[in-house]
Design goal:
Blueprint lengths: L1 H22 L6 H21 L2 H5 L2 E8 L6 E2 L1 H14 E15 L2 E14 L6 E13 L5 E10 L8
Length: 163
């Protein structure tokens, strides 16, 4: 009777050690995540400024959704691809992104950014100047990288009034 009891106690003790080992995952570095998101924002700016449509799409999550001003939200990677392929094909961009804040919580994070610049139509018509605020939610991917999950943006410029 003592041998089965000893065996049972050893088995239980070894299981407890395995559970503790599994629970001790490496600590996530919030500062490393913030730096990774800053790099993602820089990559976004680079893609816009260089007309790199594929570079832009590489930082968008498969389940992304965009919430533009005065329009219905749109989502799904194929819809997003279609809309932004038209944007990249129709304009040359000069974008400057200033990040006001970044917060990370587990596998989600957000940034508040200001986008200033211009969209120059490729048909030669007058450039469109913009000054926007963006709230972007990021999702950590299985490989530990981050991608854009949601983006909501609107102008900082009041609408023109008729006089």
């Amino acid at each position: 009777m003592v041998i089965p009891l000893v065996f049972l106690l050893c088995f239980a003790f070894s299981c407890q050690q395995q559970v503790e080992e599994v629970a001790e995952e490496p600590a996530v570095s919030v500062e490393a995540d913030v730096q990774a998101i800053k790099s993602l924002i820089n990559e976004c700016s680079r893609a816009w400024n260089e007309g790199d449509y594929e570079g832009f799409m590489a930082i968008i999550d498969e389940e992304a959704m965009f919430l533009p001003p005065n329009a219905l939200p749109f989502g799904g990677i194929e819809t997003i691809r279609s809309i932004y392929k038209t944007e990249f094909g129709s304009f040359d961009f000069d974008v400057s992104i200033t990040t006001e804040e970044i917060h990370v919580s587990g596998d989600l994070a957000f940034s508040l950014d200001v986008w200033k610049g211009s969209m120059k139509p490729k048909d030669g018509s007058e450039p469109i100047i913009f000054d926007n605020k963006n709230l972007v939610i990021y999702k950590r991917q299985v490989d530990g990288s981050w991608k854009t999950l949601r983006a909501m943006y609107s102008s900082n410029t009041p609408p023109a009034t008729e006089q």
